[in-house]
């Protein structure tokens, strides 16, 4: 506390004394300074005031009136109190009444007044001083550590570049004062890094970074406040080094694997375009799927041309001029085929091959309306003036060299020639139609369809219409009796030369060359026939930005995406997908090619984006295993083969298809078999051995068996071919109704057939199912009696309603006379029954059809259900046994055994049968016959007969 001046003190003492002498009354108010300034350290209670807190009163030294009793503070929520230290001197002190925190409030301002003690001890008539203003400042204590604003900092730099600042880290402090709340320094804790940091938190690299040397860095940074208090937790900073920015697509894979049957698959799910920060006004990307190395240019169905036309709903009546070589279509056998093309039937012409189409195949009724269609791949011909290259030509077979109609290529122009026959109107008619198209010589596959509605001719190339750019007129051809020759791959020159020969050979590849007389093809069918099963696609069209524009070509092998914003383009490109809808697609690679054009403001092009080349690898599908099962031997009486319906050799046929599927269970890969349903496209029944003799036998299928199915059939002396894309179930139904008839079976012992089926034009083929039809010729009754004493023969039992039951009876060397008589009587009765049964069978076959009767399954001997089951004497001679069950080995009758064979025959052992009484047996037999008649079948069982 400061010391008061001597003169001032003397004045107050003299004045106070005089007042006391004059009277003891409280005449004056206390006096204090008008303002005070104080400082308090947070969390402390003492306030340092300037000037000190002293109140004076002129009534001093009068007791009470001249003394100071209190200081009062006025203010809301002021955490201070004033205390009087000396009532006489008026000294006081200001201190905190509660905790003072700088972080909560840095300054306080309030009012203070001094009160004297009044006129007497009671404190009455007290007086208060004027109001003084007190300003208190709270001093800070460095109690908080710096804290970083982010838990992790990330940045990226381009290699080879020195940065003034890569990124800035920032820390803060909760202390209230500038000294302790400000961050005065940052420091990199991690040693040996090529980075430095300044006092503002800016990190820079101290040397040029190399992407090849190190792709990323992780450094730890700490901070200090101005009181040199360090952050409790350091912060991590990740810095990625990027290669020198090169504009282009990033985040794509060079190979994308496609699993068959998975639908649509994204090609570039993480793809984005790096523009190196340049402002762009537009981006145009073109994605091209290149599949020209596959079959006819992409993954199409590889069924036969006729099957494809039926699938696409084309009108019937077309003639395939380039069918697969077979006994009935042998004119293409000498042509070169392009193998290894996923069973696509492609013929390659190198300028030396051609084929004459047989006259019985050539359409004879070409009217004013017809269609010519073909797949063609053709390149430019050598030389400036190339020769004509003929795809199809109909010319005079002999004498003259007139071309009636032809389709040829000349100097990359497609020309269709049509010379009509002479009519009553002898005038010029349109004769040659020319098209000049790039597709003709681009060495790619294209589908050409020429629709003739004379005099108009329209060309479709891959479903797009093209009108002829040139039409040439000519005179009609005068009618003559000269035969014509239709050729493929060249033109036949039969006249005007010494030796008839081919000319104007074609160089290129052809497939599916057809002529349909009488009507033209529709646009819908043409589009279906040339449609690809694979292509590009875009997923989630609704999620694309509004400024995105996209366009597909008709085959969906080219996709163009345009947009103004790079982010929108990136999003669109991630949705580009590959799809293949074939059940068994062609495995192998498909090339992808992406070209990109970038436009800047006010410029045509500002960045050069490198092209992308990638591949889609279509993985091999799970190949189906087509299996044909059923009885492989059929035994029928000769009378069955002579019947009006013959026999159905494949009545019990079953066709199944399975694939091997791998599944993972418990970490192990286990293959499993799964049955799949798919189509077949042909089944061939081939006669093994001598071909059919039309004079005495036939193998045929009734037209009604194909109704309601996508099936056709052709037959010859070599067999039957059922073809068309249809389900396995429909093929089963059709094959079961194939009939074999032989109206002269006397010399026939058996007929053998081989059945095979195919999917995708032979890409997947079934097993070879062999079937033998054995003919049962009945022997005369006397032979059975004469062979009665022959050795017993063992034959395998066959358990079916209609059976041949035999077993091994071991008889003693000498039979008693009584037993011999009994046996003779039994055999005689049995022979009579057999003769009656055969007659009943013959009568039954003559009276009714066997269409609706159930066939009997048996892998060895199969008799058709009839009204009677025949049980043959087991003591027949070896010849009879061989006729029934080809090749049963002979057993020595002289071999003596003590034990009897108890082979089961119709539910009874041979011992039980032998012990039966003859009369009881005949009675049981009659009852059994009656019961079987009531059920609509006459069945004889060996269990009711004693041998």
TrEMBL record:
Q: Which InterPro entries match?
A: Cadherin-like_dom, Cadherin-like_sf, CLSTN_C, ConA-like_dom_sf
Gene3D superfamilies per UniProt? 2.60.120.200, Cadherins
For this UniProt entry, the molecular function terms from Gene Ontology, in alphabetical order, are: calcium ion binding
Could you tell me which residue ranges the Cadherin domain spans? 32-148, 149-249
Extent of the signal sequence: 1-22
- GO biological process entries: homophilic cell adhesion via plasma membrane adhesion molecules; positive regulation of synapse assembly; positive regulation of synaptic transmission
- List UniProt keywords, sorted A-Z: Calcium, Cell adhesion, Cell membrane, Cell projection, Endoplasmic reticulum, Glycoprotein, Golgi apparatus, Membrane, Postsynaptic cell membrane, Repeat, Signal, Synapse, Transmembrane, Transmembrane helix
Give the UniProt subcellular location, in the record's own words: Cell projection, Dendrite; Endoplasmic reticulum membrane; Golgi apparatus membrane; Postsynaptic cell membrane
Provide the Gene Ontology terms for cellular component. cell surface; dendrite; endoplasmic reticulum membrane; Golgi membrane; postsynaptic membrane
| Record's bilayer topology term | Single-pass type I membrane protein
Note whether tRNA processing occurs among the keywords: no
Q: Where is the composition biased (Acidic residues)?
A: 893-904, 914-926
TM region(s), chain numbering: 818-841
Q: What Pfam families does its record include?
A: Cadherin, CLSTN_C
The answer, when asked if Transferase is one of the entry's keywords, is no
Q: Name the segments for region: Disordered.
A: 874-947
Q: Give the family per the record.
A: Belongs to the calsyntenin family.
Protein name from the UniProt record: Calsyntenin-2
- Record organism: Seriola dumerili (Greater amberjack)
């Amino acid at each position: 506390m400061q010391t008061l001046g001597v003169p001032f003190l003397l004045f107050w003492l003299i004045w106070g004394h005089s007042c006391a002498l004059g009277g003891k009354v409280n005449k004056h108010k206390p006096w204090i300074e008008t303002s005070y300034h104080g400082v308090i350290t947070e969390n402390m209670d003492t306030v340092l005031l300037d000037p000190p807190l002293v109140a004076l009163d002129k009534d001093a030294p009068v007791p009470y009136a001249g003394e100071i009793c209190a200081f009062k503070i006025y203010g809301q929520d002021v955490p201070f109190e004033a205390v009087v230290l000396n009532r006489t001197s008026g000294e006081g002190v200001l201190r905190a009444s509660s905790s003072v925190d700088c972080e909560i409030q840095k300054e306080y301002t309030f009012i203070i007044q001094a009160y004297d003690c009044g006129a007497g001890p009671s404190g009455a008539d007290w007086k208060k001083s004027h109001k003084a203003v007190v300003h208190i400042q709270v001093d800070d204590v460095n109690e908080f550590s710096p804290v970083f604003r982010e838990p992790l900092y990330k940045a990226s730099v381009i290699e080879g570049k020195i940065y003034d600042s890569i990124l800035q880290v920032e820390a803060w402090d909760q202390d209230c004062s500038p000294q302790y709340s400000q961050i005065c320094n940052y420091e990199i804790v991690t040693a040996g890094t090529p980075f430095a940091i300044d006092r503002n938190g800016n990190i820079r690299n101290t040397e040029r970074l190399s992407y090849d040397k190190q792709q990323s860095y992780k450094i730890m940074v700490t901070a200090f406040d101005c009181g040199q208090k360090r952050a409790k937790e350091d912060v991590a900073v990740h810095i990625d080094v990027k290669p020198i920015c090169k504009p282009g697509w990033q985040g794509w894979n060079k190979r994308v694997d496609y699993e068959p049957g998975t639908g649509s698959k994204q090609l570039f799910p993480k793809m984005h375009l790096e523009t190196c920060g340049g402002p762009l006004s537009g981006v145009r990307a073109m994605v091209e799927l290149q599949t020209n190395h596959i079959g006819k240019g992409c993954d199409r169905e590889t069924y036969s041309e006729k099957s494809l036309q039926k699938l696409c709903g084309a009108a019937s009546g077309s003639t395939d001029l380039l069918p697969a070589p077979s006994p009935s279509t042998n004119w293409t056998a000498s042509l070169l085929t392009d193998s290894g093309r996923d069973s696509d039937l492609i013929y390659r012409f190198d300028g030396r091959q051609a084929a004459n189409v047989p006259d019985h195949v050539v359409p004879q009724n070409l009217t004013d309306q017809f269609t010519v269609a073909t797949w063609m791949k053709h390149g430019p011909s050598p030389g400036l003036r190339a020769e004509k290259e003929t795809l199809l030509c109909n010319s005079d077979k002999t004498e003259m060299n007139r071309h009636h109609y032809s389709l040829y290529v000349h100097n990359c122009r497609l020309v269709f020639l049509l010379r009509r026959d002479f009519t009553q109107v002898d005038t010029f008619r349109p004769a040659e139609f020319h098209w000049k198209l790039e597709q003709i010589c681009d060495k790619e596959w294209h589908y050409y369809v020429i629709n003739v509605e004379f005099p108009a001719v329209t060309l479709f190339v891959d479903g797009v219409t093209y009108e002829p750019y040139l039409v040439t007129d000519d005179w009609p051809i005068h009618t003559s009796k000269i035969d014509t020759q239709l050729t493929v791959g060249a033109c036949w020159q039969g006249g005007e030369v010494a030796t008839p020969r081919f000319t104007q050979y074609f160089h290129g590849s052809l497939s599916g060359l057809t002529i349909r007389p009488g009507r033209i093809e529709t646009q819908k069918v043409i589009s279906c026939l040339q449609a690809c099963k694979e292509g590009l696609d875009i997923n989630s069209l609704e999620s694309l930005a509004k400024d995105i524009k996209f366009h597909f070509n008709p085959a969906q092998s080219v996709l163009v995406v345009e947009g103004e914003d790079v982010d929108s383009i990136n999003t669109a490109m991630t949705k580009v997908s590959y799809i293949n809808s074939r059940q068994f697609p062609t495995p192998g690679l498909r090339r992808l090619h992406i070209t990109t054009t970038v436009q800047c403001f006010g410029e045509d092009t500002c960045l050069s984006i490198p092209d992308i080349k990638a591949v889609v690898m279509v993985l091999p599908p799970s190949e189906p295993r087509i299996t044909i099962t059923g009885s492989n031997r059929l035994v029928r009486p000769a009378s069955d083969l002579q019947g009006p319906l013959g026999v159905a050799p494949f009545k019990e046929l079953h066709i199944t298809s399975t694939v091997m599927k791998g599944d993972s269970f418990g970490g192990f890969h286990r293959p499993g078999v799964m049955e799949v349903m798919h189509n077949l496209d042909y089944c061939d029944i081939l006669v093994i051995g001598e071909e059919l003799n039309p004079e005495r036998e036939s193998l045929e299928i009734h037209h009604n068996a194909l109704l309601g199915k996508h099936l056709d059939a052709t037959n010859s002396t070599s067999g039957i071919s059922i073809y068309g894309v249809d389900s396995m179930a429909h093929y089963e139904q059709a094959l079961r109704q194939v009939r074999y008839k032989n109206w002269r079976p006397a010399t026939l012992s058996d007929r053998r057939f081989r059945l095979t089926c195919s999917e995708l034009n032979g890409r997947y083929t079934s097993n070879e199912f062999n079937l033998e039809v054995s003919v049962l010729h009945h022997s005369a009754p006397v032979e059975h009696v004469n062979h009665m004493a022959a050795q017993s023969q063992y034959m395998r039992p066959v358990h079916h309603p209609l059976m041949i039951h035999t077993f091994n009876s071991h008889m003693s060397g000498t039979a008693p006379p009584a037993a011999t008589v009994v046996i003779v009587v039994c055999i005689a009765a049995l022979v009579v029954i057999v003769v009656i049964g055969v007659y009943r069978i013959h009568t039954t076959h003559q009276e009714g059809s066997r269409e609706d009767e159930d066939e009997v399954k048996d892998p060895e001997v199969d008799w058709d259900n009839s009204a009677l089951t025949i049980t043959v004497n087991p003591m027949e001679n070896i010849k009879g046994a061989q006729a029934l069950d080809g090749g049963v080995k002979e057993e020595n009758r002289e071999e003596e055994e003590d034990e009897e064979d108890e082979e089961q025959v119709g539910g009874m052992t041979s011992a039980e049968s032998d012990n039966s009484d003859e009369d009881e047996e005949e009675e049981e037999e009659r009852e059994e016959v009656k019961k079987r008649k009531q059920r609509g079948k006459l069945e004889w069982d060996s269990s009711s007969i004693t041998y």
